[in-house]
Specification:
43% strand, 2 domains, 6-stranded antiparallel beta sheet, mainly beta, globular
Length: 547
């Protein structure tokens, strides 16, 4: 079977980072790689009806887009110390804004489009007592300056260009008083890298109150890496990044911490991520048994193609590891994609700290394999310019002009099918969002949140059952997050609800078919897909980076 794939070459990084005047490279372009290990091509999109669905995360996309063009002069190399500001920003409600808005900024250069550095996204949170750490992508960590007119020769012609003096996307905020006040900063890169971190940050905390932050980064010689930072002072500061794995194909890392199954007094740190290759993507894994000082890594699942396009194929993404603290069992759910309308979730389980894994059997009736949970991904399939073809919730009118006849919406927010998982005392709860249409990318579809539950460590399951109530005028429910308590008997699921007018609220369900509105006022989707004229017919428009 021939699968259409989007390819990217491993970016070439020397001592410097130069941005051409347009900052526009399409995800379909190939860039020359060099230095370090042998160059390679990476397939990062799965073939679907209507086009190739780009699977890259925001962090991976930015790393590809930026590093594909650059050279960074020695004068631009900075230390790896984080920039930190303090402040409190109460909202007009009991909620408090955790990121410091004083860091947000807009940079405008003549003959260039504006660079909007005020977007925070993809949050996670961990807490120990009064110490709370929130991780997020923070575009406020990007800084550029203009080069001399003839100082550089960008790939697309003689300068002038723009030089990055800082690309610190891996942001965080910390509170040491139970959430009353917050401090914001950026985790440091690995040694010798300079101010280059690429987000997709996730934070967890161990039983001793130590915080671990995983994200995408680089090695000192310019290779892609999964990086872990450790805080031993309640999240006030994070140490220099530790390389969990060197992987030029790395994307969308996630992290978990919990007791070793044979040495319950010790907490192990587990990191998972997607590893792209020239033939698809795999589930990658690393473990630390010394508090995040060193890691051992490997590929734990590398699927191949199947002649039946409705079956799972050679692409996986969106892992979400969780440890049961009662026995140290490690669960790793993830998405596994087909070339048809229906995709799947699967889950790997280990009882020996990642030495071996087995698949969980969900036994969903009618499926070709007992390990598969079927779903149709939610969202409208739209053209996001140089951001690729994506699924999104949208608001407003289709402005037209998309590639392959696909729609374009200025107000868009990307959707994924990353499963949400919570485990306690053998009680396992898996939540996910799914379309109510049998067709991939159906713009008229709605979506719901579903829950699968097991009370015996994943041996048997009930569900899937719909979590959100069905309410007129609320067609889409997306992005579940899950928490479990009371020994596993209480399961709470939060999610976003989109109304018929496109506005969004945050809801919380503490029981099936019921919901409490968390937000006091509905909000609009941000204008994240603003078209800018492209350089040619292969890319009719571009989208500015707003991450």
């Amino acid at each position: 079977m021939t699968t259409r794939q989007r390819f990217l070459r491993r970016p070439f990084l020397t001592l410097a980072v130069l941005l051409a005047a347009t900052l526009c490279g399409t995800g379909q372009a190939q860039t020359t790689s060099g230095g370090g290990s042998q160059p390679g091509s990476f397939a990062t999109a799965v073939s679907k009806s209507g086009g190739d669905l780009d699977l890259r995360s925001a962090g991976r996309f930015l790393r590809d887009q930026v590093l594909g063009h650059v050279v960074l002069g020695p004068d631009a190399i900075a230390t790896s110390s984080p920039s930190v500001t303090t402040g409190t920003t109460p909202l007009s409600s009991p909620n408090t804004q955790v990121n410091d808005p004083a860091l947000d900024n807009i940079q405008i250069f003549p003959a260039n489009r504006p660079f909007l550095h005020y977007t925070q996204s993809e949050t996670t949170v961990a807490a120990a007592g009064q110490n709370i750490v929130v991780s997020y992508n923070n575009s406020a960590g990007i800084t550029l300056v203009r080069t001399p007119k003839n100082g550089f020769t960008p790939p697309k012609g003689q300068g002038p260009g723009l030089v990055f003096t800082r690309i610190q996307i891996s942001g965080y905020s910390v509170s040491n008083d139970g959430g009353r006040t917050w401090t914001s900063g950026y985790v440091p890169a690995a040694p010798g890298v300079g101010p280059l971190t690429f987000g997709d940050g996730v934070v967890v905390v161990d039983r001793g109150g130590n915080f671990y932050y995983s994200s995408l980064g680089l090695t000192a010689d310019g290779h892609g890496a999964v990086v872990v930072n450790v805080s031993t002072d309640g999240g006030r500061t994070f140490g220099t990044g530790v390389i969990a794995a060197v992987d030029d194909g790395s994307d969308k890392s996630w992290i978990a911490v919990g007791p070793d199954p044979t040495n319950p007094g010790r907490d192990n740190v587990y990191v998972t991520w997607t590893s792209y290759s020239s033939t698809g993507s795999s589930v990658a894994f690393a473990v630390s048994t010394d508090g995040g000082q060193t890691f051992q890594s490997k590929i734990i699942f590398a699927p191949g193609t199947d002649p039946d396009q409705t079956h799972p194929q050679n692409f996986t993404q969106f892992t979400n590891p969780v440890v049961d603290r009662s026995n140290g069992r490690l669960y790793i759910p993830f998405a596994h994609f087909s070339n048809s309308n229906t995709d799947f979730l699967q889950m790997l389980v280990s009882d020996d700290a990642g030495q071996t894994f087995r698949f969980t059997n969900f036994n969903i009736p009618g499926e070709p394999d007992p390990t598969l949970v079927p779903l149709v991904q939610p969202g409208t399939f739209e053209d996001c310019g140089n951001g690729g073809l994506r699924l999104a919730i949208v608001q407003g009118n289709n402005i037209g002009g998309g590639q392959f006849g696909l729609p374009r919406f200025v107000q868009s927010s990307r959707l994924t099918v990353q499963p949400a998982l919570a485990v306690e005392n053998g009680n396992v709860s898996l939540a996910y969002n799914a379309s109510d249409s049998p067709f991939f990318g159906d713009p008229s579809s709605g979506s719901n949140i579903f829950l699968l539950r097991s009370t015996d460590g994943g041996q048997t399951w009930t569900g899937p059952q719909q979590v959100n109530p069905s309410v007129a005028g609320e067609p889409r429910h997306v992005y579940p997050a899950i928490a479990i308590g009371n020994g596993g008997s209480q399961v709470d699921v939060s999610y976003y609800t989109q109304h018929a007018d496109g506005t969004v609220d945050l809801d919380l369900s503490t029981g099936l078919g019921t919901a409490t509105r968390v937000t006091s006022q509905s909000f609009d989707l941000v204008p994240s897909n603003i078209p800018i004229p492209g350089p040619g017919p292969h890319l009719p428009f571009q989208t500015p980076i707003r991450r």
